[in-house]
Amino acid sequence: MDHAPLCIVGPTASGKTDLAIALAEHLDGELISVDSALVYRHLNIGSAKPTYPHHMIDICEPEEVYSAARFAADAKIAIDDITGRGKRVILVGGTMLYFRALFEGLNPLPEADPELRKRLAQQAQREGWPAMHKELQALDPDGAASIHPNHSQRLLRALELVMVTGKTLRELHRSDGKLALTSSKAPVYLAIAPLKRSVLHERIERRFDQMLERGFLDEVRQLRAREGLSDALPAMRAVGYRQLWQHLAGDITLPEARAKALAATRQLAKRQFTWLRKWPNLTWIHTDESGQAIMAESSEPQDPSNLNQGKSKNGSKSNNDECQPKLTLFQCALRYLEGEFRSNL
Question: Inter-axis angle of helices 241-248 and 254-277, to 10 degrees?
Fold first, then answer.
């Protein structure tokens, strides 16, 4: 039977992985990680790498540059393998660009140019990222307007693309040739998040402190000792790793690194919410402080912080199904899936 792929999405620290594991056990499925940090070996503590088996975890070295296009190609192989053995495909993660690359395709863009990227990173270290942003403004004003001057990874990639191709980012995105996963059934998306933003921030802080207790700083120290690994590479731009690298380099104190890492993780969650607000056919399951499910909400994707009165962001009443009496996140997700999506599953 051709099952619809089940996608568990949501902001960081929302409980996606635990839910996905429970669903995989119950539905005879296998998990595919959709996380840009988990693809790297040796990034274990700071990436909250799960021990339960996932496809697309530990598939490359941290010195490598792993792209969304490469993820889509690798994930298609994993999906064929899972479905070929009669298992259900469950994708879980918060890197929404990877989901889009897999299910909608990406415009064919040049592979990363290691030498050019290294020169640009060195220039950024000398001059600062705001200066690099001004350089992109001179080459591609519209493209620069869409990227924050401090978003170093996007800025680096944008400069690289413009310099390699001689085209603006808009021109590149107009190109044809998208390749996406073909399936007889559209993916089913469940988004998991606490109803209150403050709860998510508390979870982020608690999880980071637990990572430090488990030896996160030593993990980064060992990574810094690897020949060929630098903080300009994507693996070391991951939240937490970047800030602890700066601390070990003597640039900031450990308390400053912690504060910066927490702020960066909150910003990551905010960007994930931005993606999800625009995502079609998405069902939210909101949780309370204890992680119990509150409601399943199938409507216009939005930030759960706007849902305290059960209204969508345009003011209309949302279609909420209360998960009462209080259910675990797994129980609510399973009940919703077996009811709303029985024909697809």
Answer: 160
Strands, E assignment, the chain: 6-9, 29-33, 88-92, 188-194, 282-287, 293-298, 320-327
**Concatenated DSSP letters for 152-187?**
HHHHHHHHHHHHHHSS-HHHHHT---------SSPP
Return phi, psi of residue 301, to 5°. -55, 140
Is there a contact between 72 and 179 (Cβ–Cβ < 8 Å)? yes
Quickly count: other Cβ atoms within 10 Å of residue 190's Cβ. Answer: 25
Residue pair 144/66 in contact by the 8 Å Cβ criterion: no
Residue entry with tokens 């924050």:
148
Give the strand order in the sheet containing 320-327. 29-33, 88-92, 6-9, 188-194, 282-287, 293-298, 320-327
**CA distances in angstroms from 325 to 8, 69, 252, 292, 293, listed in the order given:** 23, 43, 48, 10, 10
- 311 φ, ψ (degrees, to nearest 5): -115, 145
Lookup: tokens for 334: 């399973």
Angle (CA) 30 201 291, round 5°: 50
pLDDT at residue 327 tops 90: no
d(CA 189, CA 261) in angstroms, rounded, equals 29
The position carrying tokens 């930030």 is: 303
- What pLDDT, in 10s, does the model give residues 260-286? 999 999 999 999 999 999 998 899 999
Which position has the higher pLDDT, 92 or 166? 92
CA 250 vs CA 211, 245, 342: distances in Å: 21, 9, 56
- pLDDT value of residue 164: 83
What amino acid is encoded at 122 in this protein?
A: Q
pLDDT reading at 173 higher than 80: no
